[in-house]
Amino acid sequence: MYSTVLILAAGFAAGILNAIAGGGTFLTFPALVWAGAPPVSANATATLSALPGYLSSGWAFRHHIRAEGALPLKAVMLCASLGGLLGAGLLLLTPDKAFSAMVPWLLLLATVAFAAGPYLLTELRRRGVPAAGPTISTAALVAVSLYGGYFNGGLGIMLLAVFGLLGFSDLHGMNGLKNLLSAILSIVAVATYIAAGLISWPAALLMAPATTAGGYLGAWLARRIPNMQLLRGCITAISVAMTVAFFLT
């Protein structure tokens, strides 16, 4: 009973956070681990559960999505697919024990990226850093998508930071594209996880609908929340708490 409530609540809240600012995996991954899923399975299941939320929030932003910078939209989507596949393949090669040892460090990396991402974007704009060319753009997108296929935590803010490096400036477009690419690389990664039997289906069937509902609500809220800094601060505090908890366990 308590595990069911925990999974549903974590999924709904994560869908909202992913649509607004990212960081939903800071809730879903620990919830699945604490509900009894092995770490690699919990990571795969959290990625699957986030997918409907990415799709619903991406659909809500569909009129804003467009490519900026050196690469056309199809090339950007291809980079996300390739990176997601590589990341999922890397996860399949990682034993549970090794992944468990890496989890606190992955959460720490995601927390730092989430906290520092907005400042990086602001600094890039302030300094007028020239947009990256096709080669660097491709490498950056594949690299961050590989991370997303391996461990979903902090993916959204990492994508936004890369968009800033690539010369994107339309914030609503960036948010929509972030959700679209998150969905694309997650579809590729999840197909790999399913083929390998990594998904905890009872947990996924509970969490995915909750994440979908949260994702659509989050996309609606994203255009109406006046104080994003306060929300981001709260998410950062949650991620710090989760990181410390995993270092101590």
Automatic annotation (TrEMBL):
<keyword id="KW-1003">Cell membrane</keyword>
<comment type="similarity">
    <text>Belongs to the 4-toluene sulfonate uptake permease (TSUP) (TC 2.A.102) family.</text>
</comment>
<feature type="transmembrane region" description="Helical">
    <location>
        <begin position="99"/>
        <end position="121"/>
    </location>
</feature>
<feature type="transmembrane region" description="Helical">
    <location>
        <begin position="180"/>
        <end position="199"/>
    </location>
</feature>
<protein>
    <recommendedName>
        <fullName>Probable membrane transporter protein</fullName>
    </recommendedName>
</protein>
<keyword id="KW-0812">Transmembrane</keyword>
<dbReference type="Pfam" id="PF01925">
    <property type="entry name" value="TauE"/>
</dbReference>
<feature type="transmembrane region" description="Helical">
    <location>
        <begin position="150"/>
        <end position="168"/>
    </location>
</feature>
<feature type="transmembrane region" description="Helical">
    <location>
        <begin position="230"/>
        <end position="248"/>
    </location>
</feature>
<keyword id="KW-0472">Membrane</keyword>
<keyword id="KW-1133">Transmembrane helix</keyword>
<keyword id="KW-0813">Transport</keyword>
<dbReference type="InterPro" id="IPR052017">
    <property type="entry name" value="TSUP"/>
</dbReference>
<dbReference type="GO" id="GO:0005886">
    <property type="term" value="C:plasma membrane"/>
</dbReference>
<dbReference type="InterPro" id="IPR002781">
    <property type="entry name" value="TM_pro_TauE-like"/>
</dbReference>
<feature type="transmembrane region" description="Helical">
    <location>
        <begin position="73"/>
        <end position="93"/>
    </location>
</feature>
<feature type="transmembrane region" description="Helical">
    <location>
        <begin position="45"/>
        <end position="61"/>
    </location>
</feature>
